[in-house]
Design brief:
alpha+beta; 3 helices; about 130 residues; globular
């Protein structure tokens, strides 16, 4: 799992920084990022990308600390907790046998269908 990466940028430069992180962490060719969507809170970007013959998903978490923008890339294979991913991203993905990715995709679909939270056995509520 990638650590948080702090950069000094303005809010207008976030998309460029997100794309740079995805190109470094996820794909070799920037053209292989098929879709990139920012959520309404500006704290999460969802992406679909080509990994060989497969189309997978990643999320980029965004947190602000004064003038620093902190970014963290998580691929679906890492089982990110962020599940506010648009169906347009989920519909692009090819089937996966990775259990973390499959569980994450299932959770994302539940959230997009209107379920307010998905709590797995052993999960914690704050």
């Amino acid at each position: 799992m990638m650590a948080w990466d702090g950069v000094k940028i303005t809010p207008d430069e976030v998309e460029k920084a997100v794309r740079e992180r995805l190109e470094i962490e996820v794909v070799d060719d920037p053209a292989d990022i098929l879709k990139l969507i920012e959520d309404e809170t500006q704290e999460l970007w969802s992406a679909s990308y080509r990994d060989g013959k497969e189309i997978k998903a990643a999320v980029v978490l965004v947190r602000w600390d004064d003038e620093w923008c902190n970014l963290k890339v998580l691929t679906e294979d890492e089982g990110p907790v962020a599940t506010a991913v648009p169906e347009t991203i989920l519909d692009m993905l090819t089937p996966t046998s990775n259990p973390f990715a499959q569980e994450w995709r299932d959770d994302c679909r539940k959230i997009s269908s209107g379920v307010s939270a998905v709590i797995r056995p052993g999960g914690m509520i704050r």
